[in-house]
Amino acid sequence: MPSTHSPGHVSARPTFLFVHGGSSNAQAWGPLRNELALLGHRSYAVDLPGHGVGARRPAAYYSARQDTGALAAEPSPMRGVTLEDNVRHVVGVVQRLAEHGPVILAGNSLGGVTISAVGNAVPELLARIVYISATCLSDTRMLTEAWDVPEGEENLLDAAAARIELPGTQANGFARLNWRAAQDDPELFARLKAAIMADATDDLFRALLDSMDPDEGYAVVAPGCVVRADRWGRVPHSFLRLTADRSIPLTVQDRMIAQADALTPDNPFDVHDLAASHVGYFSRPAEFARVLAGLV
Q1: For 249, what's the count of Cα atoms within 13 Å in the CB-facing half-sphere?
Q2: Whether the predicted model's global pTM rises above the 0.85 cut
């Protein structure tokens, strides 16, 4: 009997397409993708432009004895990368995956700006968009306004990241973070872990740190990432609300959900709570896989 899984076969089962957050890459989705495979689901993780195995990352970042002066001076693969570059890259993947069945587009953290813009660009190719504690902006004022949070719920990541940011790189349109510095500094390691993945073992967090990219660009946060009711608003969308997140505090997650719902009241967010950290999908992938599988 011939196989039904020929190159042109179209499946009713969707493919999950994952978009990483800032200073990250496709590697971060590996544990979650493995768990989804065990549940019978296909997935694909992109490296955004300037990230991952195809990027020319600064060689000094990987030196056993880091020269921070040399590291600060090296060119960045993020220089000149814009939101439009991200969208063009992801849309190309969406188009190829859509030939084989429905596509569920998902992102974490800063990856939210890209999945929002892709939702604006090709809503007809998406079965669902999923924000895993990811940035969702529904008003241009959200690009510039300060987001107040209650005392005790502050974002822990900004202060910790400031400790590892290389000076002088912001003038070139990108931030360079020396994540490897935390491997030899227990106090800094503890601060970053509390901000990003407090619900993991130290060994797991070391593995995440080793996978991080040093550079992230600022130009990806642009007006094009503000969701449009007539485009993005046509696509079913879900929000995985991470109640133990200290990088995007719960108050901020709730504000993003509420404002998007006000923009598209007939198509509000489908919200799912997980008592997990900002990158909990890396440390507790089975729980996240079950929630995502339930969206199919």
Answers
A1: 14
A2: yes
